[in-house]
Amino acid sequence: MRWLTLAVVVLGCCLLPTPAFAAGPVTVTVRTAPQLAGVRFVFDGRTAVTGTDGTVHFTGAHDFDGHTLAVDDGELGSDDEEFRFARWAGQRDPDQAFRRTVSGLPLRADYTVTAAFTARFRVTLRCVDQDGKAVPRALVPKVTVRSDTGRTQRLPVGRPVWLDGLRPVYRKSVLTSRRVGYVLLSANAYGANTVDAGRQRFRPAEEREVTLTTPFHDLTVSARDAVFGSEAGSTARVTLPDGSVRAVPFGDDRTATLRNLPHGQYEVEVTGGNGLRAEQQIRLSRTQSVQVRVVSRADLALAAGMLATVALGLLLAGRRLRRRRGGV
């Protein structure tokens, strides 16, 4: 009987709540990635807004119930940036990682839940030449970029555009935010790419006014007589990489200058005056001058006269040789 009484007492002590079990509230910390102020979270109907540290705390009594956490991102952002909820980490149920409201959260021990957000930023792209001078938008209206997420886009120059700037990264059970970078692939003018693909980069999260360098050069054309060296021609006709043609008359200095040309392959033709048409291929990679050698009518007449003189000399020499042979 004594043993039975002792067993009942021990069993009763085990069923009574211990001080450690009955005491101690439980805190759920919710943090944002990236760190954002003003994000509204609702836990079982209780609302809290993140401060400058990007966190809120919900505290409740220990229990074995399931609890609900929701995010409200409707009023996040400003005129030049916007944030949208992307996913959770630490919410226990992996099937609820991308839902705005998660349920079944425990209150048995302190833990942290992370809410990650994507971000877009309003960015304006501008082009300048190698000397820092603004390039007219009509010259380079659009550029092509590729993000490090692999997306390629054609973007307008001189007009605001919204670009992805932050995206969540979930790695080894840790949820963080990564800045999205972009690389410039092309900035076409007259059918030629004015830039070297991959050399210029920017991040919308860091730059809202992005300046891209698109070099342009001047081409000065002059012409000289191929034989006499005198100035020749009246007009320079230059075929651009896109097939369009610019005709520029020679000025008082006997040159024609074409400005703001991208590097590329060009065909230069000189016409007019006493010269015939003369063409020359050039590869423009910097501001440069090219002199075209023109064969004029005078050059052709001189050449014809020289050929006639040579032919006459050969004819006379042949006659003399035949006479000598005949007199032998």
Automatic annotation (TrEMBL):
Q: Has UniProt tagged this entry with the keyword Transmembrane?
A: yes
Q: Which residues form the signal peptide?
A: 1-22
Record-annotated membrane-spanning stretches: 300-318
Alphabetic keyword roster: Membrane, Signal, Transmembrane, Transmembrane helix
Give the protein name, as stated in the record: Carboxypeptidase regulatory-like domain-containing protein
What species does this protein belong to? Streptomyces lutosisoli
